[in-house]
Amino acid sequence: MHANDNERIGLFQAGGLSSLAVGVWLTELPAPTTHYVADIGQADRSTIDELISSLRAFGAEVVLVDLRSTMAAVASDLLRCRASHDGGYWNTTGAARFVLVSELAPLMRADGCTMFAHGCVGGGNDQRRFARYGTEVAPELSIVEPWTDPQALERFPHREAMLKAVIEHKLSLDPGSSDVRSTDANLAGISHESAELEDLETPVTKLDPRWSRWPGQTAADPETVTVTFRDGLVADVNGSGSEPLEWMTEANEIGARHGIWLCDVVERRIIGTVCRGIYEAPGLELLDRAWTRLLQASLDVASRDLYDRLSVVLGAAMYEGRWLEPAACAARDAVDRLVGDISGTVTLSVHRGLAQVEGMEVAGNVVPQQTRFGSGGNRWSKVTTV
């Protein structure tokens, strides 16, 4: 890669091993670089501040942007559309790429950057996501993909070399990242990766959760959780308030402490391979129990069938980095039409990895409910509403 003083690079800096190594490489070239650190709920602010302090001590120019509310809003969209991927993976990594590029690329451009760089694996899913969203929101920015560059690969042929450089320069490494494992975290969830976990014979119990407890480690007594929906959106979780950042934070805390979080799948990737993925999404897993029950009471057969097909389309769109493309936009418009008037309250009992529906109240248009045993068990009673 070649850069001159008139070509400033904006680096998506997450504090993981790979992106820190990219920062070292760009400094050594040298290439004028600004590190853009986004708070998307991946860690507490003290951890993010430590990263920024270490980068500035290294001599880097750093910009911090708080994107937690934006990340929460996109998590709300994932839930509303049930836009999950193979095996129910909640697309939290793909959603984070959408948020980062959509929000930071225009800022990089306004700050005078002519290129942006990221630390994602060459040829992987995220490389394609960054490229697709970059083309959509900031087509004038060139994209630097270090792990397809022979110079970068020569400098850092493996993760051990990356870790050595990070330690040498006293850069603050994300607690979920090392030479043998990595996590990708945001407010919506966390992905876990390592050579050991990619082996299909490795039991999931080898995983060290970042936020959550295993069900057997949770409290002996169940907790009651009340989730309120208004116009097809979460409006409150146990008194959290209606802002997505507030209720997503509350749902994450509840799901994590009660062991409701795990998704262990073999997913089909953009590049045509399959790969094991292990994910934490305690808030979305918890809220989906309530949202699914409300959908069951509110959509007729044809509407639910269409909704489920749209969910598959949108799950693939988020996974593949196509959330802004016309098909995804049209699918979201259709989902809005289907669920936009659904409101109600669902009460859950949460206990050791389970979230069971204890009761619900549904408002607005719902599917008529029939009962049989209320009339003696030998004929249908009058149709009622839920």
Automatic annotation (TrEMBL):
Residue intervals of the Arginosuccinate synthase-like N-terminal domain: 13-150
Highest taxon above the source species: Bacteria
Alphabetized InterPro entries for the sequence: Arginosuc_syn_C, Arginosuc_syn_N, Arginosuc_synth, AS_cat/multimer_dom_body, Rossmann-like_a/b/a_fold
Domain Arginosuccinate synthase C-terminal: 182-361
Enzyme nomenclature, EC number: 6.3.4.5
Pathway listed: Amino-acid biosynthesis; L-arginine biosynthesis; L-arginine from L-ornithine and carbamoyl phosphate: step 2/3
Protein keywords: Amino-acid biosynthesis, Arginine biosynthesis, ATP-binding, Ligase, Nucleotide-binding
Protein name: argininosuccinate synthase
